[in-house]
Design a protein that fits this description.
By secondary structure, this protein is α/β, with parallel strands linked by helices. The chain is built from 4 helices and 12 strands, in the order ααααββββββββββββ. Helix 1 runs antiparallel to helix 2 (about 55-70) and helix 2 (about 55-70) packs antiparallel against helix 3 (about 75-95).
């Protein structure tokens, strides 16, 4: 019996479109960051030459917030961008003697940010049944996960053969997500990671294509996977990793 090779074309084209959009977003982030860095450099140069007077740390932190806001492709990055702008305002007011707020007094704001994120996700109609927790290296077969770690962390192994993606928020925490025995449902799965003074690593199978869309502010997203040419006779499985790392780092790698 002959099988039409074009039967899977719509699905593969949809997957290719998703990957193309992710790569376009990934290029937008570095472009915006580069422009912001150039502007900051110009302002600092004018300050050194005596044409303007600026405070260094409010400028740098505020610029990082602007970069996140302009390059953000998801609400969480916009939220962190707004938080950095608020921090820049506090620093500027302190340096000018208008306020005397200490940052250690503001740590509850991180809890508020997490709460706002969870509330937003609930109002968006998130399916709470897809959420499950794991500790001590336990395996999960759920196709999705949604985890928040504040001053804590996890070592999670995911074995789902219909993996769809998930979300991770790590604030002063860390994580390790092992997907080496998982398989993606369809063509594309998306993991959104947001780390503040924290980070972690995501381990993927060798045959997956990885697209890193995340951006770092005094932090980084690193793709350490072994790149290869996919087998044209097999469906391509693509994992998109997006989000932000603020004073932290996210690493995607293979064994």
């Amino acid at each position: 019996m002959n099988v039409d090779p074009n039967l899977n074309a719509p699905r593969n084209n949809a997957g290719e479109d998703a990957v193309a959009k992710a790569r376009a977003a990934a290029r937008r982030g570095p472009l915006v960051t580069a422009i912001v860095v150039i502007v900051v450099g110009i302002v600092l140069l004018l300050d050194q030459l005596g044409y303007v007077s600026v405070d260094f740390w409010p400028l740098v932190v505020g610029a990082a917030g602007v970069a996140l806001l302009l390059s953000a492709s998801c609400w969480s990055r916009r939220l962190w961008g707004a938080g950095l702008l608020l921090a820049a305002i506090v620093i500027a007011l302190n340096e000018r003697g208008i306020t005397r707020i200490q940052f250690w007094q503001l740590w509850p704001l991180y809890i508020i940010v997490v709460g706002v994120g969870l509330l937003w996700k609930t109002l968006q109609g998130s399916n709470s049944s897809s959420y499950s927790s794991s500790y001590g290296g336990k395996s999960l077969s759920s196709p999705r996960f949604n985890s928040v770690y504040v001053f804590s962390g996890t070592d999670r192994k995911i074995t789902a053969k219909d993996f769809e993606g998930g979300k991770i928020s790590a604030i002063f925490g860390g994580f390790k997500i092992d997907l080496s025995r998982a398989d993606i449902a369809g063509d594309v799965a998306v993991i959104e990671v947001n780390a503040v003074f924290g980070g972690g690593e995501i381990i993927v199978p060798e045959h997956w294509v990885v697209v890193v869309e995340g951006g770092g502010v005094f932090g980084a997203f690193e793709d350490k996977t072994r790149h290869f040419q996919p087998d044209a006779s097999q469906p391509t499985k693509t994992l998109v990793v997006k989000g932000s790392a603020i004073f932290g780092g996210i690493v995607v790698k293979t064994w």
